[in-house]
Amino acid sequence: MLYDIGVIDILYDTGVIDIRYDTGVIDILYDTGVIDMLYDIGVVDILFDIGVIDIRYDIGVIDIRYDIGVIDILYDIGVIDILYDTGVIDILYDIGVIDIRYDIGVIDILYDIGVIDILFDIGVIDILYDIGVIDILYDTGVIDIRYDIGVIDILYDIGVIDILYDIGVIDILYDIGVIDILYDIGVIDILYDTGVIDIRYDIGVIDIRYDIGVIDRLYDIGVIDILYDIGVIDIRYDIGVIDILYDIGVIDILYDIGDIDILYDIE
């Protein structure tokens, strides 16, 4: 799927693939069968069928996010990787969010095509909350701007989430190990530190994931063993997330762009 819908190409172009290979994420995805499963379960066909690939470039959201440094931060803390891993990027391509962005500008198109509604409907917003992106957007002022211009309100009206449930995309996200990946790359740790996990327990998301066996599956497919083998778990416990962020240069970058406060929040 990732190859078919162009995600792999983008990942190579942006350097994400290199980073993921270096950190062992790609190896984990192959080792746990996630890549094979993406092909096997027909995710590609579904994404093409629901038309999810052409609008995003057109509406200009990406440009704005690069300008304010949000994209850089997201790359630095691994959020972009997660978005690719969970299929969010694929979905955004499929619903057309990316193509329109470059062509006509963010605000008008977001209003006209109801992009925000779609993002809520397809579960993108939920994922963004789960992985801490929304917190960052609030910190950088992006959320406030979006509420002011009415973008958030617009995206509530389309009903894409129901469609995704109906066609099984939500189930697929669980099946392909998205939750596993979140644990593997340290997002869960960050979510605990920032209080996001507490919120998710409150709304029952975590309980649901336990109920459907996601946690058990982590062990079953060998993710935990792999993490021990490549030293990810040991590193986590031994030096902590912040130390790792220093080691890979994220802290320095965040100092440079003036957003170090975000990392202190997750320390």
Automatic annotation (TrEMBL):
<protein>
    <submittedName>
        <fullName>Uncharacterized protein</fullName>
    </submittedName>
</protein>
